[in-house]
Amino acid sequence: MYSYWGIKFPSWMIKPSVLPNLVRIVIGHCRRCECFEIFGPLPFLKDLELHDSTALKKINVWNWRRQCQVQGGDASSSIFPSLKKLFLRDMPNLEEWCGAGDNEDAIDGVDMGVPLFPLLSSLEISNCPKLETIPPHPTVEKMELYHCSGQQLQSTLLMKTRCRTVDMTTTTTTSSQEDFKGFPLPAEKKAMQGLISLRTLTIKECSNLTSLSQLQGLQYLTALEELQIEECPDFCSLEGIQALTAPKELTIESLPKLQQLPQDLENLQSLRDLRISHCPFNNVEGLGTLPSLQSLEINDVPDLVSLPQSLGNLKSLQHLQIYYIPNLESLPEETRQLTRLRDLRIYGCPHLEERCSRETGEDWPKISHVPCVEMW
Questions:
Q1: Would you state the torsion angle of the CA atoms of residues 47, 79, 39, 74, taken in this order, to the nearest 10 degrees?
Q2: Parallel, antiparallel or unpaired: strands 110-111 and 106-107
Q3: pLDDT one-digit tens code per residue, 60-108
Q4: Could you state, in order of their start, the residue ranges of all structural domains in the chain?
Q5: Residues near 11 by Cβ (< 8 Å), separated by ≥ 6?
Q6: Predicted TM-score of the model (pTM)
Q7: Which stretches make up the R13L1/DRL21-like LRR repeat region domain (predicted)?
Q8: DSSP state of 286
Q9: Is-cis flag, bond preceding 256, omega within 30?
Q10: What is the 3-state secondary structure (H, E, C) of 198-219?
Q11: Residues 155, 189: contact at Cβ < 8 Å?
Q12: Ranges in the chain, pLDDT < 50
């Protein structure tokens, strides 16, 4: 339904069993509507999307449950028992989801804590900066929050969930989250305890996040396999990453104040893939403590002038990419020890390319055992 100009939805839509067989609902561009009344139950609904309704302030499930109670129905049942995907996009004035409290909430004797979406697996909330409370979603596996409030993110993380993916981009804050400003993850350890199944965490464009040590409770992310930190202008330290024990992939990209890796990365015993791009690193000494690393990419790091001797400790390394590091002059002698290295690519490194020239370069004996060497 698009471009409905009423302030409220028509009364017939709220009546139970009017549209019982709906599988997908998309409501958008309802520029005057201020309240979305849940119409239900809709036992077969799988996808629900609300977007571009700039006047919308409230999503209300109370009236439906009260109506069920008055009519003798089961007000504690799930409204959307089959819903798997929920998208809320571009609703800058949306403030509340009435009936989205915790399990102890009860309104007029009706339990409001019963999960509205017992099968929900994918949740996306984008450009809803005033929304602070959303329904419990214990089954969610993928969650994407863009341009949302810190309070909303806090309440989301405090819920127990099977979430495997969290993507947070340019999150804004409420007055209660001034300490984190652009990055409103709560500092309490319990905020991470509900993410025990989280596999992928992307932190991007979060201003004033300076260090992972700000995020207490990282040790609870025992299933985390992939961590990406990108385009955070004030991020200057990876201290705190030692609390993670399971990540297999780490991407560090476009962090203009991050100058080096921590020296003690021994806890990252499972790390297989490391990508460093567009960072002002002056050294990468911590690499030698990653014995399980299989793939290493260093891209556009202009201040880097040498690779550490500890590079030879990377006994599992199979792929090495060195791109656009103009001041890198040579490879360490310990490169000979990378006996499992199968693929070496060097692009945009004029000094290194000359020294690694096939047969004639001074560093060629260090890499002659590598089956595939590409340079330009």
A1: 160
A2: antiparallel
A3: 765 555 555 544 555 456 678 898 999 999 999 998 876 554 443 443 3
A4: 1-125
A5: none
A6: 0.70
A7: 3-51
A8: G
A9: no
A10: CCEEEEECCCCCCEHHHCCCHH
A11: no
A12: 70-71, 75, 101-112, 170-188
